[in-house]
Specification:
There is one protein chain. It contains no helices and 3 strands. With about 60 residues, it is an all-beta fold. The protein has a domain of about 30 residues. The relative contact order is 0.23.
Length: about 60
């Protein structure tokens, strides 16, 4: 049995924080993706805001 800190000798985890996409017109997070196109490492989502009806694209790298 070992005693002490169980994290000794382990690498610290790396974190990447991402925010939920929002409408550029009204700021709403109520979005609907109606088309998604993958092109290599980049994915483009054609998106519709459910609150104001604005159409825009969300690019994921």
């Amino acid at each position: 049995m070992q005693s002490g800190d169980p994290c000794v000798g382990r690498e610290q985890p790396n974190y990447v924080f991402c925010q939920r996409p929002r409408c550029p017109s009204c700021g709403s997070a109520r979005l609907q993706t109606y088309r998604s196109v993958a092109d290599g490492e980049v994915t483009t989502r054609h998106t519709l805001c459910k609150d104001c009806g604005e159409k825009f694209r969300v690019v994921l790298e």
